[in-house]
Design goal:
Belongs to the HAD-like hydrolase superfamily. SerB family. By secondary structure, this protein is of the alpha/beta class. It has eleven helices and twelve strands.
Length: 268
């Protein structure tokens, strides 16, 4: 740090040997740190408003470890086709709405009961998810799960993890089977950004008191607009848009970024 014009004191350990604060005066550009911090997660930020009052989180491949639409497609026998489109959409190579409709159409005829089977057999929480949300709630933050996925899954993940709210897309059924369509309008990147802006206004907080976390191109607008935008094990475009990335750690890394010590972590 000294070589980049910043004087630091001794590290303040948030958890011994795992996470530490380095407080410094001066100006350091993030790109100047990549050569010395290329194998650790770090967040360069001001101390003001460090502990956030609002969190918006993506669900698939962020709060949970899978893409639910890909897992549903597996039961429909079209996982390879759907997963390929998912990957392109997450990289920002396809229009999200068009990619979403194309993938949902491939699920036509799938029995409604398969959704619960998918949740039970395939959906796993990302390590640290519940601790992240419960710790933020214990400290007065509002937590929102906003997903381009499906309400069947976001409602259950909300309850499992402890989010205040969830918003996503509603699959349509007829005679107990998927119609191959979802209710309009589609919850896309613009809707995620709208949720961020709405909640900032409703809570009466400074934008710098908000944090957004996600992994794909659909998350970029909210990542860019939040006080702290974080890319989690993300695609390249999301990494480039974010203020900070989490490339190695689990979701509790976002607590360390906010200055929480390990002894402050909460999970009931």
């Amino acid at each position: 740090m000294q070589a980049h014009g910043a004087e630091t004191g001794a590290p303040v350990w948030l958890r011994e040997g795992v996470a530490a604060d380095l407080i410094f005066d001066g100006t350091v550009q993030p790109e100047n740190l990549s050569d010395i911090l290329n194998d650790v997660d770090y967040c360069l930020q001001p101390t003001l408003h460090r502990r956030k009052k609002l969190l918006l989180a993506d669900m698939d491949s962020t709060i949970i470890t899978v893409e639910c639409i890909d897992e549903l497609a597996d039961y429909a026998g079209v996982k390879d086709k759907v997963s390929a489109i998912t990957e392109q959409a997450m990289r920002g190579e396809l229009d999200f709405n068009e990619a979403f409709r194309a993938r949902v159409a491939m699920l036509k005829g799938l029995e409604e009961s398969v959704l619960q089977r998918t949740f039970d057999e395939r959906v796993t929480l990302t390590p640290g998810a519940r601790t992240l949300i419960q710790t933020l709630r214990q400290n007065g933050a509002y937590t929102a799960l906003v997903s381009g996925g499906f309400t069947f899954f976001t409602s259950r993940v909300r309850d499992s993890v402890g989010f205040h709210m969830h918003e996503s897309n509603e699959l349509l059924f007829e005679n107990g089977r998927l119609t191959g369509e979802a209710a309009e309008p589609i919850l896309n990147s613009a809707a995620k950004l709208d949720n961020l802006n709405r909640l900032i206004a409703e809570l009466g907080i400074d934008r710098q008191q908000s944090v957004a976390i996600g992994d794909g191109a659909n998350d970029i607008p909210m990542i860019e607009a939040a006080g702290l935008g974080v890319a989690f094990h993300a695609k390249p475009k999301a990494n480039e848009a974010a203020d900070a990335t989490i490339r190695f750690g689990d979701l509790t890394t976002l607590l360390y970024y906010q200055g929480y010590t390990y002894t402050e972590f909460f999970s009931d």
